[in-house]
Amino acid sequence: MKEQAVIQVGQEFPLTIKRLGINGEGVGFFKRNVVFVKGALPGEVITAQVTEAKNKYAEAKIKKIRQASKDRVTPPCLIYDACGGCQLQHMTYERQLIEKRDLVIQALERYVKDLAPQIEVKQTIGMEDPWNYRNKSQFQVRKPGNKVIAGLYAESSNKLIDINKCIVQHPVTTHITNEIKGFLQKLNIPIYDEKNPQGIVRTIVVRTGMKTGQIQVTLVTTKKKMPHKEELVQLIRAIDSNIVSISQNINAEKTSLVFGETTFNLFGKETIHEKLGELAFDLSARAFFQLNPEQTEHLYNEIEKAAELTGEETVVDAYCGVGTIGLWLAKNAKEVRGMDIIEESIQDAKKNAKRNGFSNTKYVHGTAKQWLGKWKNEGFVPDVLTVDPPRAGLDDELLKTILDIKPKRFIYTSCNPSTLAKDLQQLTKIYDVKYIQPVDMFPQTSHVECVVKLELKKS
């Protein structure tokens, strides 16, 4: 058996890219070492130059493309390489959809190897126009030197990239952010800096209702008191007559989390109105709502299809947010219950249920494992459980709870194939995976969403 060769930083060698990695990087193999190459595409032959060498893998950059993929295109974004917010603009969109399905298959082969060949992974559902789809921007604000900038951090760095135009964002979100940057500069309002405790403004959040046109602006600050606050609010109001909600959220912690616990309304309503299919929703500043509403309708239709509701089933919507998934299912369910750890989201969910005329819903504040256990003790076990967890997947306690209460049908919506496949290691003890349907919620990035239909095994 050949020994694994030692790779050194700076070393160059020819490399054939075999597949795409979970972060959108090309993956090749050199003398038994896995080599990850940012910007390389499957099928390409490159000269790789090692930038980091570890025990069993290396990271490299493209020194030269010897044989380019037919799927390689010129990224239309001028700051694509610097920003890092998108990972796949250099690949045709048709190929992106193929590779995202493959990322799901790779995850299954890694974590549930024996089951992987038996699991049907359907073709990825994509977009007709995969640009300008994001309805919300969250741009960090800093002031290096004398200029206020706002944008995203470059990949794996603390360098903030000033973004004046983002072609995956709805144009109105970046336009308003740019205007606010100018106001902060003009009014000389102190800007947050990790090293400067006197800084105040740290993030500009802009959300637009794709169907309604209503716009919500939230300024995340380190403290409530802010100089020229009233003047700033008046200037923001004047940018666009569709701005119907301006809020201030306080986050004084040294954290990567955008929002703090406290939000104040500065102008207009506390929420904006948005529509999704036949449903209408009110969204407060911190409320979670899918970032790509067009694809969200496809996603929720797939959840509805997998749930196979006849009107007789009880449904629990864990991680319910403002109630979107549960309300999408409510018209065909006997009862829908949901829970979330953000109190404002539960209040929004209750209002949204009432607004849409549903009386068969119940929303509670707390964790899924807490409420599912409590309801089981009261004699309530849902016929259908649907979850849409964060990227970390289901926590161990919730997994144990699901395996304990055993809903007959379980619809798992995942935004991370790796954690999905890890969770399937446990779930497939009592569930059969009927199929996985990938949905492209974030074109031009390496992210892929999946709807997984699981059914309790027949004893």
Automatic annotation (TrEMBL):
Which controlled-vocabulary keywords does the entry list? 4Fe-4S, Iron, Iron-sulfur, Metal-binding, Methyltransferase, S-adenosyl-L-methionine, Transferase
Q: Where does S-adenosyl-L-methionine bind?
A: 290, 319, 340, 388
For this entry, the protein name equals 23S rRNA (Uracil(1939)-C(5))-methyltransferase RlmD
This chain's source organism reads: Psychrobacillus lasiicapitis
**Of which family is this protein a member?**
Belongs to the class I-like SAM-binding methyltransferase superfamily. RNA M5U methyltransferase family.
PANTHER family assigned to the protein according to its UniProt record, in alphabetical order? PTHR11061:SF45, RNA M5U METHYLTRANSFERASE (PTHR11061)
Catalytic residue positions = 415 (nucleophile), 415
**Keyword Iron carried by entry:** yes
Q: Which NCBIfam families match?
A: rumA
Gene it is expressed from:
rlmD
Q: What class of enzyme is it?
A: transferase
Domain TRAM as annotated: residue spans: 6-64
